[in-house]
């Protein structure tokens, strides 16, 4: 299990290749990448993500450990960025490796749902108008946790 919280950008292809390399005992690797998107069609200048380093690392490790314990995973990877990012930049990545695709897919979805709702990150949107707003939790993100 690898959990990385970093400010710098990451190379998705390189990370996915490194994670999948040498997996002779795994039949499936699933990856997902979250990207900063502009809901307003040109109105977002940047997304800023804040966190408390020790707390965030422990929380993400717990989420990943729970996924490994719940599904037959050979490994899991979570990369999450913080700091200021512009639309189109990668925010985060998860990868799961399992003997069978069902476990890999379900564990990746679980990680995404819990990272979205339970990871201790605070997001602030910086609009091109100069307005800055904290991003509120969404009911649909909370509702997604009920299936787990």
Description:
With 148 residues, the protein is of the alpha+beta class. The chain has a domain at 2-35 and 56-120: Aldehyde Oxidoreductase, domain 3. Helix content is 34%, strand content 34%. It is built from four helices and eight strands. It has helices at 12-20, 53-70, 101-118, 139-144, and strands spanning 2-6, 28-35, 44-51, 75-81, 83-85, 90-98, 121-127, 132-134. The strands form two sheets. It has a four-stranded mixed beta sheet, sandwiched between helices. Helix 2 (53-70) packs antiparallel against helix 3 (101-118). The chain is globular, with a radius of gyration of 16 Å. The chain starts with a strand and ends with a helix.
List the helices and strands and how they pair.
Elements (H helix, E strand, L loop, with lengths): L1 E5 L5 H9 L7 E8 L8 E8 L1 H18 L4 E7 L1 E3 L4 E9 L2 H18 L2 E7 L4 E3 L4 H6 L4
Parallel strand pairs: 1-4
Antiparallel strand pairs: 2-6, 3-5, 3-7, 4-6, 7-8
Summary, kept brief:
The chain has 148 residues and is of the alpha+beta class. It has helices spanning 12-20, 53-70, 101-118, 139-144, and strands at residues 2-6, 28-35, 44-51, 75-81, 83-85, 90-98, 121-127, 132-134.
């Amino acid at each position: 299990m690898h959990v990385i919280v970093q400010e710098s950008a990451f190379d998705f292809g390189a990370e996915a290749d490194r994670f999948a390399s040498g997996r002779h005992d795994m039949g499936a690797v699933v990856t997902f990448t979250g990207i900063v998107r502009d809901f307003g069609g040109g109105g977002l200048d940047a997304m800023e993500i804040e966190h408390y380093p020790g707390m965030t690392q422990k929380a993400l490790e717990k989420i990943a450990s729970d996924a490994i314990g719940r599904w037959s995973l050979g490994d899991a990877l979570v990369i999450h960025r913080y700091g200021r990012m512009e639309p189109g930049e990668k925010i985060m990545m998860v990868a799961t490796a399992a003997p069978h695709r069902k476990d890999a897919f379900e564990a990746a979805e679980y990680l995404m749902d819990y990272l979205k709702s339970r990871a201790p990150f605070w997001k602030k949107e910086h609009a091109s108008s100069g307005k800055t707003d904290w991003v509120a939790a969404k009911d649909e993100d909370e509702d997604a946790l009920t299936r787990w």
